[in-house]
């Protein structure tokens, strides 16, 4: 009998023969196996299907802890301040911001690009990792997709309110009107409208579709509790009634039929397939807003790939920034989001950080190679040289150097395995990257605009309190929505997590002889159960099945 | 999926051709029977049971599992879905509509010279054409999937059984419907018991 047979492991655990949870070493939870012949487990502690349901639905059915309500109230208050600022802006006009004639895009567009960039990690994880069959995505895809949607909501606020007279915002859509005015389809700003709204819609559809089975699980649990209450002659509890109706409506009557699952998986793959070019196109189009203009510092062909890499970089940083605390705050969260998953994401941060660093250096090469003096001046003097070093130096040099320190230098610590595997170190780097990515957009937008062409039109930009509070407000909106998501919806893709458990394989029971690694003792109980065949269908099994 | 299943209206309101077939099998208490449901504890046992039910020649039956199982099309013997074809058609039509809209607005309805380019130049239309194509294919994939699955359907005979609700948790089920031509309650029960089901139940249709 192979040690990878999950039935045996579970029955032994239930009988008390083997201890359930191995003593957890905070530095190595059993997922950090470097032997390429052994696949690290995707879920720790040999969780059974029932335990997966209980844990993940439990998050959505109970208050997470004493921390939740104060945090929610704080986030909601900040969101309230942000909404007040937006209303103040709409009532008064864009003059309440620090914009001026020279710098007519500043914090508004910086924040827009910052948030839309954060929104890219979710779809990347869902779509691209799905197509590449990266099963570790199940640990983060649901929360990253949620984050995507909330970030896109925050992003969408800024271009909408920066138009000034928001009651004319309908003019960005091709709506037939009395004046026969159509939008200009040659403008990248209009492409942006279509790209961002498509992205928001497709992200919502993707997120919702992935959630249908999990909402059905929540519905069924509420339904079973209600039936038991009726059978016991007890009163039906109101929260369960609400759950049964709301989740019942949202889950569309999903009944876990295999014929349905088959179409569902095909549809999911199609959505992943169309989302992959979509996610690449959205930030490319956002970069066209700048790249198709003639402003030195913006007019650069490297912008589309550079923006996409930066978006993935910033998005993963935000995923880590939120999920590392969640790992600590929710019980059993670490079983699903293992150190291996964090290490994988730290590697992605390192790779995309290097891509961004390459793009930064390439901009200098092109500024020199093009021989264009405006371009050279924009990079060498307006960005890099501190004003205290040279008369021509830039007053915004500190923004540039913050960006370089946070985005290029700080991820370099991930060359060291020890740092990649330390959640605290990862969290600090993620925070720095998030700050750095905000400054990247600030550098691109404000420093390029503040000294363009004629010295007579040079101006500085100073944010007003309304600028700052509006940005803080969107952070509040983002966090409020994310806390609500953590409280009320399935945080992990339950059905997908179950599908990558070893016992999900339809060929699990005739697994004896194929599995040489299963017998080796890796020193951790967890390594047994999910050892060599996380999906349970290695190549040898596939042949048997068909 | 029959029309009458999807819209639970009184039979006389439904056109004659779309009415559900008269019930041939009944529960012990005389009410119409939906079918027989077998419960399994492991993915492997339900997979092999599905192969046996397929080989026995049943058509109106289904398997229920908490997660999508690999190779289930082969185990159950059904055809791959036509959904990709449908989505492809919708995506291309959407993209074409997006292109035509931009071209008509820019080159036909109100031509304005922008940047000295010809009004009908196709190059600037590509990004929006692409986005509209993606948007329509996403809608087609989700709503096409739901429609082909006969969803939303909030009422189903299987939901009456509390045990069946464990299909969303950790149990596996095979349900053979009473209107299958090969169906007879005793034979089906024996077949399912022989496949290692941990429990076999009759389920009423109402």
Task: Please trace the helix and strand order of chain B, writing H or E for each element.
Answer: HEHEHHHEHE
- The class by helix and strand makeup of chain B works out as alpha+beta
CATH class group of the largest domain in chain B: Alpha Beta
Gyration radius of chain A, in Å:
26 Å
Q: What is the typical, i.e. mean, pLDDT of chain A?
A: 83
Shape of chain B: elongated
Order of helices and strands of chain A: HHHHHHHHHHHHHHHHHHHH
Low-confidence segments of chain B, given as residue ranges, are none
**Shape summary of chain A:** globular
Q: What number of domains of chain B?
A: 2
How many H/I helical runs of chain A?
20
Q: What order do the strands of the largest sheet of chain B run in, or round the barrel if closed?
A: 2-3-1-4
| Secondary structure tally: strands of chain A | 0
Radius of gyration of chain B: 25 Å
CATH architecture of the largest domain in chain B: 2-Layer Sandwich
Account of the 3D structure:
The complex is a heterodimer of chains A (546) and B (206). Chain A is 63% helix and 0% strand. Chain A has helices at 6-14, 49-61, 68-92, 107-118, 120-131, 141-162, 188-231, 238-250, 258-291, 303-329, 333-336, 339-369, 373-384, 397-409, 417-420, 423-450, 465-488, 494-499, 525-529, 539-545. The longest helix of chain A has 44 residues, at 188-231. Helices cover 40% and strands 12% of the residues of chain B. In chain B, strands 2-3-1-4 form a four-stranded antiparallel beta sheet. The interface between A and B is large, with 76 and 74 residues.
């Amino acid at each position: 009998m192979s040690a990878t047979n999950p039935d045996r492991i579970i029955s032994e655990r239930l009988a008390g023969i083997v201890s359930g949870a191995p003593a957890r070493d905070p530095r190595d939870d059993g997922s950090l196996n470097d032997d390429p012949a052994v696949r690290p487990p995707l879920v720790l502690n040999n969780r059974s299907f029932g335990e997966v349901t209980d844990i993940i639905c439990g998050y959505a059915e109970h208050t997470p802890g004493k921390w939740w309500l104060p945090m929610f109230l704080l986030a909601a208050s900040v969101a309230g301040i942000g909404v007040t600022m937006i209303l103040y802006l709409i009532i008064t006009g864009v003059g309440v911001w620090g914009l001026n004639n020279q710098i007519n895009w500043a914090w508004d567009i910086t924040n827009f690009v910052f948030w839309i960039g954060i929104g890219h990690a979710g779809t990347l994880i869902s779509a691209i990792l799905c197509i590449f069959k990266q099963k570790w995505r199940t640990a983060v895809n649901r929360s990253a997709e949620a984050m995507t949607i909330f970030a896109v909501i925050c992003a969408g606020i800024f271009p909408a309110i920066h138009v000034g007279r928001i009651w004319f915002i309908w003019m960005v859509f091709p709506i037939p009107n009395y004046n026969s005015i159509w939008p200009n389809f040659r403008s990248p700003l209009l492409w942006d409208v279509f790209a961002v709204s498509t992205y928001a819609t497709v992200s919502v559809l993707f997120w919702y579709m992935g959630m249908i089975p999990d909402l059905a699980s929540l519905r069924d649990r509420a339904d079973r509790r209600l039936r038991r209450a009726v059978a016991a002659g007890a009163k039906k509890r109101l929260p369960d009634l609400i759950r049964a109706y709301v989740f019942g409506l949202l889950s569309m009557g999903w009944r876990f039929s295999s014929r349905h699952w088959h179409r569902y998986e095909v549809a999911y793959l199609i959505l992943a397939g169309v989302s992959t070019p979509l996610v690449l196109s959205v930030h490319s189009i956002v970069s066209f807003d700048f790249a198709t203009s003639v402003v030195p510092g913006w007019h650069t062909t490297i912008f589309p790939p550079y923006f996409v890499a930066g978006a993935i970089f910033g998005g993963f940083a935000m995923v880590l920034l939120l999920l590392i605390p969640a790992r600590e705050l929710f019980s059993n969260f670490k079983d699903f989001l293992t150190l291996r998953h964090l290490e994988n994401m730290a590697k992605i941060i390192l790779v995309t950080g290097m891509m961004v660093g390459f793009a930064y250096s390439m901009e200098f090469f092109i500024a020199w190679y093009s021989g264009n003096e405006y371009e050279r001046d924009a990079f060498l003097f307006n960005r890099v040289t501190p004003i205290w070093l040279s008369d021509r130096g830039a007053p915004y040099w500190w923004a540039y150097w913050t960006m370089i320190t946070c985005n290029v230098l700080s991820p370099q610590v991930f060359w060291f395995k020890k740092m990649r595997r330390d959640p605290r170190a990862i969290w600090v780097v993620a925070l720095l990257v998030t700050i750095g990515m905000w400054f990247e957009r600030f550098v691109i937008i404000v420093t390029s605009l503040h000294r363009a062409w004629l010295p007579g039109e040079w101006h500085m930009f100073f944010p007003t309190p309304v600028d700052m509070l509006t940005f803080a407000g969107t952070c509040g909106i983002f966090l409020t929505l994310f806390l609500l998501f953590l409280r009320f919806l399935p945080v992990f893709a339950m059905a997908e997590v179950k599908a990558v458990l070893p016992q999900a394989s339809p060929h699990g029971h005739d697994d004896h002889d194929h599995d040489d690694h299963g017998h080796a003792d890796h020193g951790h109980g967890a390594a047994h159960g999910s050892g060599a065949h996380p999906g349970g269908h290695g190549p040898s099994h596939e042949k048997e099945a068909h | 999926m029959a029309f009458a299943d999807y819209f639970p209206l009184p039979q006389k309101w439904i056109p004659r051709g779309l009415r559900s077939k008269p019930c041939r099998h009944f529960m012990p208490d005389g009410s119409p029977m939906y079918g027989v449901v077998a419960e399994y504890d492991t993915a492997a046992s339900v997979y092999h049971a599905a192969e046996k039910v397929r080989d026995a020649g049943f058509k109106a039956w289904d398997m229920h599992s908490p997660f999508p199982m690999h190779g289930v099309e082969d185990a159950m013997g059904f055809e791959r879905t036509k959904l990709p074809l449908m989505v492809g058609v919708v995506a291309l039509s959407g993209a074409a509509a997006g292109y035509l809209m931009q071209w008509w607005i820019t080159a036909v309805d109100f031509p304005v010279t922008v940047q000295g380019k010809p009004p009908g130049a196709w190059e600037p239309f590509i990004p929006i054409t692409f986005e509209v194509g993606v948007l329509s294919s996403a809608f087609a994939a989700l709503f096409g999937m739901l429609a082909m699955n006969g969803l939303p359907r909030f009422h189903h005979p299987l939901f009456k059984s509390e045990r069946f609700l464990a299909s969303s948790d950790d149990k596996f089920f095979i349900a053979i419907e009473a209107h299958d031509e090969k169906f007879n309650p005793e034979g089906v029960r024996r077949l399912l018991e022989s496949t290692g089901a941990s429990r076999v139940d009759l389920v009423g249709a109402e």
